[in-house]
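Let us practice reading a record.
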Amino acid sequence: MAITPSLMGEVGPEQWDAEYRRTGRVLFRPRRRALLSRRILLTWAVAILPSIGTFDEWDTRGTWFYIRVVGILLLLGSALAETIRLLRGQPILLVDTTGIRLGKAYVRWSSVASIGAPYRTFWAETLPINLTNEDWPDLDIPRDIVDDLSAFAGWLTHLHAERHP
């Protein structure tokens, strides 16, 4: 039974490996729970909080009022764009026989030095893919796409070892 890409991040390494062996690729879309992630909630809070009290000053439309309105519109637009991006299923993570693609970023297996350990920042939990070229930035896979980053790191390490014994 094939698992849809939207649910692939919820299952484990056995299903990922079965799909990889069957089709040669595994496609992951952001999980719906990503809409409740700390990053999205804080983005909306930062967008909404400055607007509290701004529109009570309709009668005193000075320069600062217009600057605040423009700033609020930019923050709301940013929060809305990030939410729409997640609702549309972006970014897509694709692991195939040639490499790893996250959104527009692509890394060939030969460019992967190692799979790092998952780490947590204030905003999110991510899994770093360390590259052989120090000039290139590491590829960070967010927990918004794969629920169990430790198991995912183990599976990617296994695939990397297969590609580069």
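A brief commentary: Residues 15 and 114 are 23 Å apart (CA to CA).
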